[in-house]
Amino acid sequence: MVEEAKSGHPGLPLGAAPMAYVLWTRHLTHNPRDPAWPDRDRFILSAGHGSALLYALLHLGGYDLPRDELARFRQWGSRTPGHPEAGVTPGVEVTTGPLGQGLAMAVGLAMAEAHLAARFNRPPYRVVDHTTYVLASDGDLMEGISAEACGLAGHLRLGKLIVLYDRNGISLAGSTELAFTEDVPARFAAQGWHVTEVLDGNDLTALDRALQAAREETARPSLICVSTTIGYGAPQKQGTFHAHGSPLGEEELRGAKRALGWPEEPPFFVPDEARRPFQDAAARGAEAQKRWDEAMRGYRTDHPELARELSRRLRGELPVGWDAGLPSFAAGGKAISTRKASEAVLQSLAKAVPELVGGSADLNPSCLTWLKGEGDFQAPGRRAGIQGAVGGRWDHGGRNLHFGVREHTMGAIAVGMARHGGVRPFAGTFLVFSDYMRPPIRLAALMGAPVVFVFTHDSIALGEDGPTHQPVEHLASLRAIPNLTVIRPADAGETVAAWRAALERQEGPTALVLTRQDLPVLDRSRLAPPAGLRKGGYILWESSSGAVPELILIATGSEVHLALAAGEELAGNGLRVRVVALPSWELFDRQPAPYLDHILPPAVRARVAVEAGIRLGWEHYVGLEGEIVGLSSFGASAPGPVLLREFGITPSAVVAAGQRVLARVAAARERDYHGPAGP
């Protein structure tokens, strides 16, 4: 594959082939005829650069990946891309490549399995009972996310998580001894893992015994450290970094085949005796699925309500009437932050959407991302009643996930849980810490995983914590990720609508961006209803209904209130003003052109956008003649109202910008009418 493509990573596939062979032919339970069978074992190639190994396994295992696709490795339109991609190649569970991400997502897969098993298994029925296997590299374990994820996995005692560590001592740039000399077995033992070592990566018997021991250890996750030779068989390049990330070359490839006793021709040669163990394993997997189907029939008879609920969850369908009990917020009452409104929504959703699970990176009291009374996801047997417990059951069936100060792995775990199915995960932290989470957010968007990321403390208005905690560029950064829907609601009513939109979205992740500071509840008796959020943007208010506006003010989140105040002041001077709430660029831009032109008429060139973040991107909506009231620097440490005043995020600043824009547009029209002035 690699030689045909003249691109790829041959070293890991050659070195790790024996452990992959033993796993796939003797331990992995799967059915290639039904890759989506819910109770299949999951295999994650965290070392995604070794994708040629995974494609070979899928081809031999009987998945719909014919030899022609292997020959098109890394080519346009093939089902064998450079790194594994879920949704492109049958049998690929998650998209991997950025090192450490697959391992952390696998922790999420194992957590989802443990949670569903605790919720649905009833003696004698174990309708959720499968193992998550990972093949990880030195590079995966160097990445910091592996320490986060594996520390949490050990704490949670995820006994059905088994990691095969391909310890070949080589990374892309040279020997791992350049930078990585830690005692990995001791590290994992300290994190609460069951650890074994296989000193000869070609010893199939030792590999088999280690895997069997790992399967029998159900109280702890297992790490199997396998010493291998990168590029095994290549006469000159085996054991060197030259075998890591470049093709071996024709001469070295032929030498490897000779060394391994393999025919030099034809290419892509697979004898029947090599296929047979994989075919036998696939047949065993099909029989296992038949037994599961039989168990499910008995389960449906003995536990009909649980069976219906499990089936609904696995289909990814929301319960009928799930949003009927969502809270409402009346204008004129006490101001409320959108994070607090989100908390109220979550408590309603907790009762109506039982598959909803989530938490925060040690920030429940700040982000308010808890499901009160719905239990804490903890290892059974761990001491209960400790500080910070949300309340309710205390085992793997709890719905509140405690990630600790681990934003990066929190994101990846949530993505893994979403890819497993049967749960709808959410994850909360401060917006500024989305920086730590960008890799898993990006992969969630790439895979279309329906995770809800809850980001609070959304602007400089959070106040005294200062610029280290005040997000400035983060909205623009998130909006730059394709297939991520970012929603920044203006008040409690829009927050309800935002959660509704987030849970209805199945084709990708959603980021909810919420305030720390309290905001008035907008008076919807004189303003448009918050349901307009579903379209991303809507006319909140205009001074002359039905008339073409002279000036359009556009805002998101807390700045909608400023735009509304400015619009009313400008209208008092006799101007026709429209205020547009634009909580989600992505939802808005997906609307048909007539709707977009209705909200933002192309003929109305006088436009002002206001948002307490960097201005980048707003040009798309205000055009070259418009203005953006925003930021061009970091924040500062002071009370929120002081910061907004000092940085010019005020109604008066919006009024002044509107007047300048009107003057500029009028001057441009004058030039267009009379032509350019003379010398």
In round numbers, the mean pLDDT is: 97
Strand content: 5-15%
Instruction: Give helix % range.
Output: 40-55%
Main structural class:
alpha/beta
End-to-end separation: 69 Å
Shape: globular
Sheet with most strands: strand arrangement: 11-8-12-13-15-14
State the assembly state of the protein chains. Answer: single chain
pLDDT < 50 runs, ≥5 residues? none
Q: Main beta sheet: strand number and arrangement?
A: 6 strands, parallel
Structure summary, number of beta strands:
20
Treating each run of at least 4 consecutive H or I residues as one helix, how many helices? 24
Task: Work out the radius of gyration.
Answer: 28 Å
Structure description:
By secondary structure, this protein is of the alpha/beta class. The chain contains 24 helices and 20 strands. It has a 6-stranded parallel beta sheet, sandwiched between helices. Helix 22 (619-622) links the parallel strand 19 and strand 20. Helix 7 packs across helix 15 (407-420), helix 13 crosses helix 18 (492-504) and helix 15 runs parallel beside helix 16 (434-447).
Reconstruct the topology from this structure.
Blueprint: H1 2-5, H2 11-26, E1 42-45, H3 51-61, H4 67-71, H5 101-120, E2 132-137, H6 138-142, H7 144-156, E3 161-167, E4 170-171, E5 174-175, H8 184-190, E6 194-198, H9 204-216, E7 222-227, H10 250-259, H11 272-302, H12 304-315, H13 338-352, E8 356-360, H14 364-367, E9 376-377, E10 394-395, E11 400-402, H15 407-420, E12 424-430, H16 434-447, E13 452-456, H17 474-479, E14 485-487, H18 492-504, E15 510-513, E16 538-542, E17 551-555, H19 559-571, E18 577-581, H20 585-589, H21 593-599, E19 607-614, H22 619-622, E20 627-631, H23 640-646, H24 651-674
Parallel strand pairs: 1-2, 2-3, 3-7, 6-7, 8-11, 8-12, 9-10, 12-13, 13-15, 14-15, 17-18, 17-19, 19-20
Antiparallel strand pairs: 4-5, 16-18
